[in-house]
Amino acid sequence: MKIVISLGGSVFGNDVARIREFSRVLDIIAENHQTFIVVGGGKLAREYIAKARELGASETFCDYIGIAATRMNAMLLISAMKSAARKVPADFMEAEELSKNSRAVVMGGTFPGHTTDATAALLAEFVGADLFINATNVDGVYSGDPRKVRDAVRYERLRPSELVEIVGKGSMKAGANVVVDLLAAKIIERSGVRTYVILGEPENLLKAVDGDVVGTIIE
Ligand code: UTP
User: Fold this and answer.
1) What is the pLDDT of residue 176?
2) C-alpha 184 to ligand 1 mean position (Å)
3) Are 39 and 14 in contact (CB under 8 A)?
4) Which of 41-50, 62-71, 139-148 has the lowest mean pLDDT?
5) pLDDT tens, position by position, 153-166
6) Which of 71-75, 172-176, 182-186 has the lowest mean pLDDT?
7) Which atom of ligand 1 is closest in space to residue 41's alpha carbon?
C-alpha cells in the first residue's frame, strides 16, 4: 500500500526515546508499504510562534515559523529512521520524487494558513495514497471535545461529508485541540482517500496499518 501518516507534533514530542520508538515502528511499516510521514510542529512551533507574535510578527509570518518548526521535527525523525530519505521535501512533487528512491519520505508543512493535517491530506491526494492515517492526541473524532464534554461519543465510522459537517459546525473546538482541520476534512472528502483518525502511539500505527483500528474510520 501507499500510506500517508500525519504525525501530530504534540504526539511526536521532544523525548529522544519516544522519537526512537516512532522511528522503529515507521521503519517496520516502510518495509512493506511506500510510506510518507508529515510531522507536526508541536511545542517547538507553539513556543516560537508565541514569541514572534509578541514581537509583532503577522500571522502569516508566524505560520512560516510554524512550518520551519515542523521541518526541524521532520529532520529529527529522519535522524532516527533507517528507511527515510535524508531530505525534507519542500512540496509534494519533491516528496514524490524522493519516494522513487526511498521507502519512506518525511516532510513538514508547506504553505501558511493551515496545519500539517491538511498538508498530509493533500499529500495523500497527490500521491494517490491507499490509506491516510491521522495520528493525533485524541483516539478518534468525537461529537464534542472529550476532555470538556462529558457525554461526548466517539464516532466509529463517518462518511467524509459527515466529517466536513462536524468539523465545519465547530462542534470540535477550534485551535490546538481540533482533531482534523477543516481544509484536511474537505480534501479527505474530495479525494475519497480512506482515513483513520487514531491516538498517536507507536503501537497504534502498526495496528492501524493491519486494519485493526481503535479510532474513527472515514470512508
Ligand atoms: P502543526 O500542524 O504542527 O499544527 O503546525 P498544530 O496545531 O501545532 O498541531 P500539532 O500540535 O503539531 O499536532 C504548526 C503550525 O505551523 C503552521 C501553522 O501555523 C500551524 O499552526 N503551518 C503548518 C502552516 O502554516 N502550514 C503548514 O502546512 C503546516
Assistant:
1) 39
2) 12
3) no
4) 139-148
5) 899 999 999 999 99
6) 172-176
7) 3
Find the range with the poorest average confidence among 11-15, 44-48, 127-131, 196-200: 11-15
CA of 66 to the centre of ligand 1 (A): 6
Which residue has the least CA distance to atom 19 on ligand 1?
63
- What nine digits make up the cell of 111? 504553505
Mean pLDDT of 79-100: 98
Contacts of the segment 61-69: beta carbons below 8 A, 24+ positions apart: 63/109, 63/112, 63/113, 64/112, 66/41, 66/109, 67/41, 67/108, 67/109, 67/110, 67/111, 67/112, 69/9, 69/41, 69/42, 69/44, 69/45, 69/108
- 102 in ligand 1 pocket by Cβ < 6 Å? no
- Tally the domains of the chain: 1
pLDDT (average), residues 161-184: 74
Residue 106 Cα to ligand 1 midpoint, Å, equals 15
> Whole domain around residue 38: which residue ranges?
2-218
Question: The domain spanning residue 173 has which CATH number?
Answer: 3.40.1160.10
Between 167 and 163, the more confident residue is 163
For a mutational test of ligand 1's pocket, the pick from 73, 116, 133, i.e. the residue with the most ligand atoms closer than 8 A to its C-beta, is 116
Identify the residue whose C-alpha is closest to ligand 1 atom 24. 112
The 3-state DSSP class for residue 57 equals: coil
- Cβ of 66 closer than 6 Å to ligand 1, yes or no, is yes
89 touches ligand 1 (CB under 6 Å): no
